[in-house]
Amino acid sequence: MALTGLEIFKLLPKTNCKKCGMPTCLAFAMQLAQKRAKLEDCPDVSDEAKEKLAAAAAPPMQKVVFGTGDNQVQLGQETVIFRHEEKFYSPTVLAATVSDKLTGDDLKKRIDAVNSLHFERVGTKIGVRAVAVTNDSGESEPFVQAAAAVKDAGDPPLILVTDSAEAMAAAVAKVSDSVPLLASATPETAEAMAKIAKENNCPLVAKAESIEALSELSEKIKAQGVEDIVLSLDGLSIRDQLFNLSRIRVLSLKKVFRPLGYPTISFVADGDSDEQTAVATSLICKYSGIVVVDTVEPHAFLPMLTAVMNIYSDPQKPVQVEPKVYPIGEPNADSPVMFTTNFSLTYYTVESDVEASRIPSYILVVDTEGTSVLTAYSGDKLNEKTVADAMTKNGIEDLVKHRKLIIPGYVAVMSGKLEEATNWEIMVGPRECSMLPKYLQEVWK
């Protein structure tokens, strides 16, 4: 259990030297207890006290990493229950399964299907981030071959899924350099699985049917020398999984109960692709660090990935695009010019509709700190001055020979002042950008 602020204070030098940036040692102790300061900020703390203070300074949820290079993924290190309290740090890893029962062309097709699950949404590339090789055959050799085939097809982060220590040891020996996540150790196999994980420097999944059993199992695995642990609740209904995942989150972050201070993994294998999508999305929300699904349908993966993207965005920092001029198609000196804000969702919606018009155009993106058109206008981040400055900065006058600017219909009220500020003819566009194709084709001259 973490130390309280007063308990930490008793272990500090009590010199009030201010070297840590705090006015007093007591203030520093309180910040340390709340995970708002780091132990190394105090240069004078004694070695004797460091060991006791480490428990208070350590993050409440362990960081776990698997995979290598650019494909490496990170789990854990979350600090809050709800996103609005701060933000979430480690986006849920979505993984798809590859069964070791598949061979030859069937195995290759499945691997290719998994590796193709990548999309672009509002300018961000999203997709499957791990491949779970499942030991459905119950034998070691097919498991080894499937793991090797997945690794050779692109070296994605691997999750090796088997309850057999023998099969796990054989597969890890083949792909250990890719640092796979080993799933899973049960109370019966904990010692053998922990030995494999420790020898190969791989993280290990602890699997049990209750929170109480999980906490005992994680302590048992840790005692074997494995620090990187992922928790898995086995054999529970979706209702019980969500309830217990929430309990784990509260106990690890609020109560700083170290045996449960690890990220979690969930497996979704039942039902068709639509049912798996619904269950997986629920688990993404509350609070699974990895969700493994058995489907490889693109239409199923995209909503799950969108949920991850939305939940793990920073609520205090809107997703933005770079403020500049974006050519759509191959515009020339006679092409229309319009502006919008640098809120990603706004820009990419406008871009899509302009492309649909098949009329080459220029879109001027004005810096409004990532807010939408109406929000920016009401907060005075979008006005005649910001638009005029953006036009000057990006050399709009040099791009076209006409002097016509299309503005969003929702800010038609600023057309008069904008015309005075720019000496351009202001054309009020539609309120909804879905009407832009028709507007550009029929109104633009």
H/I helix tally: 17
- Specify Rg, calculated over alpha carbons: 27 Å
Per the CATH scheme, the topology name of the largest domain is TIM Barrel
Query: What CATH first level of the largest domain would be assigned?
Result: Alpha Beta
Q: What's the CATH superfamily of the largest domain, by name?
A: Dihydropteroate synthase-like
Question: What is the residue-mean pLDDT, rounded to a whole number?
Answer: 92
User: How many distinct folded domains?
Assistant: 3
Principal-axis shape equals: globular
Largest sheet: 8 strands, parallel, barrel
Number of strands: 17
- CATH architecture designation of the largest domain: Alpha-Beta Barrel
Helix-strand makeup class: alpha/beta
Helix content class:
40-55%
**Span between N and C termini?**
71 Å
Unreliable parts? none
Strand percentage lies at 15-25%
Strand order of the largest sheet: 3-6-7-8-9-10-11-12
Task: Characterize the structure shown.
- With 445 residues, the chain is an alpha/beta fold.
- It folds into three domains: 5-57, Electron transport complex subunit B, putative Fe-S cluster (3-methyladenine DNA Glycosylase II, Chain A, domain 3, Orthogonal Bundle), CATH 1.10.15; 64-311, TIM Barrel; 325-442, Rossmann fold (3-Layer(aba) Sandwich).
- The chain is 40% helix and 17% strand.
- It has helices spanning 5-11, 25-33, 47-57, 104-115, 140-152, 165-175, 190-200, 211-223, 238-253, 273-285, 298-311, 344-357, 373-378, 384-393, 396-399, 415-422, 436-442, and strands at 64-66, 73-75, 93-99, 118-121, 124-127, 130-134, 158-161, 181-185, 204-208, 229-233, 264-268, 290-293, 325-328, 337-341, 361-366, 404-407, 425-428.
- The strands form five sheets. An eight-stranded parallel barrel has the order 3-6-7-8-9-10-11-12, surrounded by seven helices. A three-stranded mixed β-sheet has the order 13-15-14, sandwiched between helices. The chain has a two-stranded antiparallel sheet with strand order 1-2.
- Helix 14 (384-393) runs parallel beside helix 16 (415-422).
- It is globular, with a radius of gyration of 27 Å.
- The model has no long low-confidence stretch (mean pLDDT 92).
